[in-house]
Amino acid sequence: MADPVFLITGASSGIGAATARAAASAGYRVVLAARSTATLTQLAAELGGDDRALVVTCDVTAWDDQQAMVKLALDHFGQLDVVFANAGLGRGRSFLSGTPERMRAMVLTNVLGPALTIRAALEALRESNGHLLLTGSVAGRRALPGSLYSATKFAVTGMAESARQELNGSGVRVTLISPGQTETPLFEDQVEWRLQSDDIARAVLWAVSQPPHVDVNEILIRPTAQDG
Q: Is 28 marked active-site?
């Protein structure tokens, strides 16, 4: 059989790019999706070129883009085995920070985005008995002061469980990846003790490497220095 196919949204940097590298090293062909494709093109070349990596321009808030992403993946590779809804936006911890436009973009990206990814990829995952993963957050388990981002990740936590229940018995597994503080471009205030994107990528690959009858529903991963 052909090597399995691993699709990642938000693949241009951070957790998405690290997961793409880890998946490629594990033998997956990869579909790299993001709004900007300049960085993705370089990453795809690093991961083996057209035979091993497909670059797709996708705004996850746009249904037409999501449909086109899945169609291009299936046309190019013939199957989808893992879909990682990872694209996300962050903002400051105050309802007075940023602009209303940024707030709107974050809600659409972090909540509507993964919901549309699920909708677009669901039938392909059913056909392959595949694996759906969503990027949540520790912030989706406990509210943070003034954090609309936290509220969006609470929504993703619920979405993962809703998807699991809908897919129960179908052969499709669902995993919520909930990182603690991680060194990614999503947030500007970085500190030395945070997790690295590679740490999250290893957790993702561990979840998808389990036997087909094992469904790891959530991985909560914090740096040892994080107190909450």
A: no
